[in-house]
Write a structure and sequence with these properties.
Layout (H helix, E strand, L loop, with lengths): L5 H15 L3 E12 L6 E6 L4 E6 L4 H10 L11 H7 L4 E6 L1 E4 L2 E5 L2 E4 L2 H18 L16 E6 L4 H13 L4 E6 L7 H15 L4 E6 L13 H9 L4 E5 L7 H5 L2 E3 L2 H8 L4 H31 L4 H21 L2 H13 L1 H37 L1 H6 L4 E4 L6 E2 L11 E5 L4 E5 L6
Parallel strand pairs: 3-6, 8-9, 8-10, 10-11, 11-12
Antiparallel strand pairs: 1-2, 1-4, 2-3, 4-7, 5-6, 13-14, 13-15, 15-16
């Protein structure tokens, strides 16, 4: 019997394996997944109840390397270097590997040319079929999407109470507008009963009409983890919702059927809270204060324009009387429309939103218009008062002003005893002036 060396036996085994298994498909469960950072190669085992098959994925296989993050629900390849992430998202997953069997230094292994999650192909197929079906129904049309409320008082959240999503939403809400009420429907967001639970949550808020907007979502995960949001019953609940629905499912790269049907898609639960609460309380107060200041400056500018008109009027005594009346009216208007007073009143209204936000929400958009309307009305009244005192208007009604012409300042004649025959007079009409000589005077 021939005696073989170890190298000879290894060579025979290598040739036998590589000749008989140039490319095969093997299914099993991943264990011991490890990304070797210096080289970029990935090593792991494929196992079943009885045996273990070593596997290697070389770094130069960029096709497979690039699709790994999406395959396992991660945001980047770097996350595969974290042991906790690998244990949670990779190890234990059932996959099908494609590649040749090779032997190296007496150990056999499969060189991974492709990798698929078991059942993933069927899930993708179902996803695309439902997506096309609902698209044809018009469920994704932008024209049917409802706008989000400008100042929501109550936000309904359909998600798990134990996940990171609800904590992120609560933190953002507290920071941006802490007077908003959050109503949570504790839903199952993963597994066999998840779709029914999410659907019930959306329908619950629509039945009771107790929120202004709904956020439905969860954190990221694999396509299987997020599959409840790809179910037709969830899409139908969102489509039929009378309350605007924001879909906040997974990481930024994850898309579900719920994202397409929802009135607004947020890339993360945190982003959903920020989109729902676009304006902070501080921003609103500042905007109101700025509008008030601009309004007062405009009114002041209009008053100054009319004051300049009076400065050019010839009669000093009449000018003085009109300026005094204008000053009095201006002071009254200033007291009523002082920036400080209006800012305090409007700020007080905003602060009262803690308990009366619903009233502010329905009337806020009209409050500034009412203020403008009232100020415009006061301004019209002011102009009317000025017009009544304007001597030109009096002249237009047939009256005139008669003054005696003298070397000193002309004097208005109100008594015939103050003039003599032969003296010259200046009569001011609504249009033009007349110079005349006194021929006779009568009492």
């Amino acid at each position: 019997m021939k005696v073989y060396t170890v190298s000879e036996i290894s060579k025979i085994i290598k040739q036998t394996l590589e000749t008989n298994f140039p490319e095969i498909k093997v299914s099993g469960e991943i264990s011991g997944f490890k990304l070797h950072l210096p080289s970029g190669h990935i090593y792991f085992n494929l196992k079943d109840e009885i045996s273990v098959l070593p596997a290697i994925l070389y770094a130069y296989n960029t096709y497979v390397i690039s699709k790994l993050p999406e395959l396992f629900g991660l945001s980047s390849l770097k996350e595969f270097a974290e042991i906790s992430t690998v244990e949670k998202s990779v190890n234990g997953r059932k996959v099908t590997l494609t590649g040749p069997i090779s032997a190296y230094q007496g150990r056999y292994q499969i060189q991974v040319k492709d990798i698929e999650l078991e059942g993933l192909g069927e899930l993708y197929k179902k996803f695309e079929e439902l997506k096309e079906k609902l698209k044809k129904r018009g469920w994704f049309d932008e024209s049917r999407k409802k706008p989000l409320p400008l100042f929501p008082e109550r936000i309904g959240v359909v998600t798990s109470t134990s996940g990171a999503a609800i904590r992120d939403i609560l933190n953002i809400t507290k920071r941006r507008w802490n007077s908003v009420h959050i109503l949570i429907y504790p839903a199952i967001v993963q597994g066999e009963n998840a779709a029914d639970s999410i659907t019930k949550g959306i329908n619950f808020f629509n039945k009771h009409k107790n929120v202004d907007v709904i956020i439905a979502g969860r954190g990221g995960g694999s396509i299987e983890d997020l599959w409840a949001f790809n179910e037709e019953k969830v899409a139908q609940a969102i489509f039929e919702s009378e309350i605007p629905v924001v879909s906040a499912v997974g990481h930024e790269t994850d898309f579900t059927i719920a994202d397409f049907v929802a009135d607004l898609r947020a890339p993360t639960p945190s982003a959903a809270a920020e989109l729902v609460l676009k304006n902070t309380k501080t921003e609103i107060k500042k905007r109101v204060h700025d509008l008030t200041a601009k309004l007062f400056l405009k009114i002041k500018e209009l008053i100054n324009i009319n004051k300049q008109f009076l400065d050019h009027f010839p009669n000093q005594r009449l000018k003085k009387d009109l300026i005094q009346n204008l000053t009095n009216l201006k002071d009254k208007l200033k007291k009523r429309l002082s920036v400080e007073k209006m800012a305090r009143e409007l700020s007080h209204l905003v602060l009262e939103s803690e308990t009366k936000f619903e009233l502010i929400k329905s009337r806020f958009s009209h409050s500034i218009e009412n203020i403008l309307k009232n100020v415009k009305e006061r301004y019209k009244n002011l102009l009317s008062s000025l017009n009544l005192l304007n001597p030109l208007n009096i002249l237009k009604r047939g009256y005139s002003i008669t003054q005696i012409i003298s070397e000193t300042e002309p004097k208005i004649i109100t008594d015939t005893s103050t003039v003599n025959e032969g003296e010259k007079l200046l009569t001011t009409l609504a249009k033009g002036k007349i110079i005349s000589v006194i021929e006779r005077k009568e009492k």
